[in-house]
Amino acid sequence: MKKLITIFLLVLPISTYAENLLNYKTDIEKCDKQFEHDMDGNLTSAEMIAVTDSQVICYESVAHKIIDKYYSKQSEPMKNNLRESIIAYKKNANDMYNPDRCYNECGNLTALMAYSPILDFVKNYIEHLTNAINSDF
């Protein structure tokens, strides 16, 4: 009986901890669902860019929640670094999708395509944050 109680006491905090991290996946899914909802319809390229930028901001807010909860001692520098990284990544992605030889779709469409690597970057950042939290150092 003592072993059973001990195991229960050990498993309960771990399962609660894991459950908290899983909530961030639902936050990401909420961002994705909002994105799909906002993109539904006849939007101009500029409107699609605005919706995609909102998704980046949504992902960033999920990262901020994780940082505030698990990295409180260095939360402000981490959030500032993330913001600066996103800005730099946007510049790099825009450069990547605007080669010297431009074609008819250059402009808003290439700007929209440039958001794909930015979204990947922020999602990967969140994944790495949660992996670091789950690590047994």
Written overview of the protein:
The chain is mostly helical. Helices cover 82% and strands 0% of the residues. The chain has five helices and no strands. It has helices at residues 2-39, 45-70, 75-96, 108-113, 115-134. α1 runs antiparallel to α2, α2 runs antiparallel to α3 (75-96) and α3 (75-96) packs antiparallel against α5 (115-134). The chain starts with a helix and ends with a helix. The model is unreliable at 4-18 (pLDDT under 50).
Largest sheet: none
What's the total helix number?
5
Order of helices and strands: HHHHH
Mean residue pLDDT: 82
Calculate the terminal CA-CA distance, rounded to whole Å: 31 Å
State the helical fraction.
Answer: over 70%
Quick description:
The protein has 5 helices and no strands.
Task: Give keywords.
single chain; 137 residues; 5 helices; 0% strand
Give the SSE map.
Layout: H1 2-39, H2 45-70, H3 75-96, H4 108-113, H5 115-134
Helix pairs in contact: 1-2, 2-3, 2-5, 3-5
